[in-house]
Design a protein that fits this description.
Oligomer: single chain
Shape: globular
Largest sheet: 2 strands, parallel
């Protein structure tokens, strides 16, 4: 992963991608897996929220969605604990999101957590990058896309 060319045109998405590349290029499997599970969690919330907003979900299935989303959060928590990453800045936010997810009384309350999860994802990713040891002194060289 010494060279990566992002195809993202949105500056926010490109910056996220480049940050992920930085985490993955460090060669630390635990941090890489934490990132993967973190992104799976974020994606679950990001896909859930617009579906809820558009009325595509059945309110009677709130418990189902609450469990599914909570399981995504719990997967990140468990992986980070098992790999001693639970001391990273932002980890406590996962516990808060888990609590709020498990106690959400409606689909709307679950959807409201999406931005919280998104910001927490940024914070945890910052910690994964900032606190990660470099791999034998090598760093990732990121090549931004050439303008069209």
């Amino acid at each position: 992963m010494a060279d990566y060319r992002s195809t993202a045109t949105d500056p926010h998405w490109r910056e996220e991608e480049l940050q992920w590349v930085e985490v993955l290029s460090k060669g630390d499997a635990a941090r890489g897996m934490a990132l993967v599970l973190l992104q799976k969690m974020c994606t679950a919330f990001h896909e859930f929220e617009p579906a809820q907003r558009e009325g595509a979900l059945n309110e009677a299935k709130t418990d189902f969605f609450r469990r599914r989303l909570a399981n995504r959060v719990l997967a990140v928590i468990n992986e980070m604990r098992a790999n001693h990453l639970d001391t990273l800045e932002g980890f406590a936010g996962l516990l808060d999101v888990l609590n709020k997810t498990q106690s959400a009384a409606s689909l709307a309350e679950l959807a409201e957590l999406t931005e919280v999860v998104h910001q927490l994802g940024h914070r945890l990713c910052d910690s994964l990058v900032r606190d990660a040891p470099t791999r034998q002194g090598k760093t990732c060289v990121v090549t931004p896309p050439e303008p069209c």
